[in-house]
């Protein structure tokens, strides 16, 4: 199996784009003879004429034009691999904070994509309430946080907006009972929204649990022992949104917001920010390092 040398391909691309060996040699900081020898060996390896040397200015043959497209991609891929695996700007640790109710299904995809692109960066996920995540960011304990909020705070960026829905057990009927039995974590951002909506509508309610354990809340709701509120795209399979027209007040929408200490957080944080934007927009991230 014959192999193409990336250094030789780099010289080939330079000659093709700059229009001559002299300019390419200067650009690559090589001698003209070194570049000419590389081109000769490349043509011998492929057993093809890559350049038309009959005119005053060197030109590509049809075979040369075909190779140029491949050569550019191979050189670019080589440079990208070397930069991502050896650049110390992309080596270290990044801590991402996110509320538990927006972890699935998006965050695992983000972590996987980021780790594949930057294997030398250790990325850690910290899950907590929006209130506690803001506090952690202020103390410098996390590098970047996602939040669920009704309004954007200064310095943040809204990634998307999602309806907030009443949820109960699949096929459950507890939402019809009064007083309405609620289950929320003590620091859940949706708790005051739900309580205020019920009180403004005149619906009696009672809190059935006083806990910070998300699993306990989920179990109570799934067993049709309590009602809660979740973002529309984060409802687990064993729960369902209570239908509109059920007599329960509308809970509006919630913003998923992104915060970092500064707008320019450095290469690792900026690339993670890019992945998060793309993920919540439903688009693939175009990860490109800047030299």
| CATH class categorisation of the largest domain | Alpha Beta
Number of domains: 3
Structural class, from helix and strand content? Answer: alpha/beta
What is the helical fraction, as a range of percent? 40-55%
Molecular shape: elongated
Main sheet record: 7 strands, mixed
The N- to C-terminal Cα distance equals 34 Å
Work out the number of β strands: 11
Q: What's the tally of helices?
A: 9
By CATH, the superfamily of the largest domain comes out as Periplasmic binding protein-like II
| Mean of residue pLDDT values | 89
> What is the name of the CATH architecture of the largest domain?
3-Layer(aba) Sandwich
Low-confidence stretches: none
Based on the structure, what is the oligomeric state of the protein chains? Answer: single chain
Per the CATH scheme, the topology name of the largest domain is D-Maltodextrin-Binding Protein, domain 2
Rg is 29 Å
Give a brief description:
This protein has 3 domains: 6-86, Winged helix-like DNA-binding domain superfamily/Winged helix DNA-binding domain (Arc Repressor Mutant, subunit A, Orthogonal Bundle), CATH 1.10.10; 89-147 and 258-280, Periplasmic binding protein-like II (D-Maltodextrin-Binding Protein, domain 2), CATH 3.40.190; 161-254, Periplasmic binding protein-like II (D-Maltodextrin-Binding Protein, domain 2). It has helices at 6-18, 21-28, 32-46, 62-86, 106-117, 130-138, 190-201, 214-222, 267-280, and strands at 51-52, 59-60, 92-98, 121-127, 144-149, 157-169, 180-182, 205-207, 228-231, 239-241, 253-259. The protein is built from 9 helices and 11 strands.
């Amino acid at each position: 199996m014959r192999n193409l040398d990336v250094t030789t391909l780099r010289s080939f691309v330079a000659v093709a784009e700059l229009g001559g060996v002299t300019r390419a040699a200067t650009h690559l900081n090589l001698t003209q003879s070194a570049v000419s020898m590389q081109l000769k060996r490349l043509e011998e390896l492929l057993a093809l004429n890559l350049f038309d040397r009959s005119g005053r200015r060197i030109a590509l043959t049809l075979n040369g034009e075909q190779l140029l497209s491949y050569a550019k991609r191979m050189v670019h891929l080589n440079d990208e691999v070397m930069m991502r695996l050896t650049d110390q700007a992309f080596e270290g640790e990044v801590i991402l904070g996110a509320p538990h109710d927006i972890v699935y299904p998006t965050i695992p995809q983000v972590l996987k994509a980021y780790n594949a692109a930057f294997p030398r960066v250790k990325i850690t996920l910290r899950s907590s309430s929006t209130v506690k995540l803001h506090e952690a960011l202020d103390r410098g304990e996390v590098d970047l946080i996602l939040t669920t909020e009704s309004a954007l705070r200064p310095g943040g960026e809204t990634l998307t907006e999602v309806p907030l829905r009443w949820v109960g057990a699949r096929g459950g009927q507890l939402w019809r009972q009064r007083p309405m039995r609620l289950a929320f974590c003590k620091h859940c951002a949706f708790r005051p929204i739900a309580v205020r909506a019920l009180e403004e509508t005149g619906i009696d309610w009672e809190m059935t649990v006083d806990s910070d354990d998300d699993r306990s809340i989920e179990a109570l709701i799934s067993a049709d022992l309590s009602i809660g509120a979740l973002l529309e795209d984060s409802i687990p399979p064993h729960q369902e949104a209570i239908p509109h027209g059920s007599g329960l007040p509308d809970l509006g929408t919630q913003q998923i917001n992104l915060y970092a200490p500064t707008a320019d957080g450095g290469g690792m944080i900026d690339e993670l920010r890019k992945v998060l934007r793309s993920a919540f927009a439903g688009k693939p991230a175009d990860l490109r390092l800047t030299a």
